[in-house]
Amino acid sequence: MNNTTRFTNRANNYARFRPGYPAAIIDHLTSAIGLHSAMEVADIGSGTGISSVLFLDNGHTVYGVEPNDAMRAEAEKYLQGYDRFHSINGTAENTSLPDNSINIILAGQSFHWFAQQEAKQEFRRIARPDAHILLLWNIRDISTDFSAAYERIIARFGRGYEARNRDLAAEDRHTSFFSSSGYCRQTFTHTQLLDYEQLRGRLLSTSFLPSEEDADCAAMLAELAALFNCYEENGKIRFDYTTTLYTAKID
Question: Which of 9, 112, 148, 175 has minimal CB crowding within 10 Å?
Fold first, then answer.
């Protein structure tokens, strides 16, 4: 599947049911790299705007670079109240941003789709002196009975899914992107409380799972409903995440 089109029929569920990011990230970056609102942000693979809003709420100008028309349209709708948000049809490898224009290059839940060497060249081009790159992921906790059972549904119905690759932020897989000067890693905790319709939408936002048009979707959703009925408390299920942030200078 083409990485730039794989979320086309998931965009609405993605916008409505994927988790945001903890506000503590901004406090951490303020002390760790001197983040301030005058720094301009390029959110690469910005999707439906979930990662952009974290920085817009801190007063930054954000350029959301997203190649998928449906995802970009959801971001434009979601962020229409932010004058400092600029939506751009572009990719990590060809952002169309001006040379030496960006202080913060952000990839939230998107870095694993990039062609790394081409993206690195593009990031060097758009970066201002002393610019930082931030890689950000929400990783599902699978330590509870519910979350482990949810993981089994994904493993059973996922196309090409391998559990060993679930942590796409793993240091041994992606941090070769950074310069020899190294990077900093910080983790945060984050939680969603979801009713059944929200849990259903959260599952259907996953690109490698059956969509509602697929024959095996009904069986997958039947298992999900049974799982929810088994573990819900007061009509909600708890989704816990570890949010992992990598911070580095552009070399």
Answer: 148
Tokens of 157: 């119905």
The H-or-E segment that residue 194 falls in is: strand 184-194
Complete DSSP assignment for 107-161: EES-GGGS-HHHHHHHHHHHEEEEEEEEEEEEEE---SHHHHHHHHHHHHH-SS-
Could you tell me the pLDDT band of residue 164, with boundaries at 50, 70 and 90?
low
Token code pair at residue 115 = 């062609």
Burial class (CB in 10 A: 0-12, 13-18, 19+), 188: middle
Residue type, 190: H
pLDDT band for position 112 (50/70/90)? confident
Single out the residue of 33, 216, 48 nearest to residue 130, CA to CA. 33
Rounded to whole angstroms, the Cα distance separating 2 from 129 reads 34
Mention every residue, 6+ apart, whose C-beta is less than 8 A from residue 244: 136, 137, 139, 169, 185, 186, 187
CB-based contact 77:14 (threshold 8 Å)? no
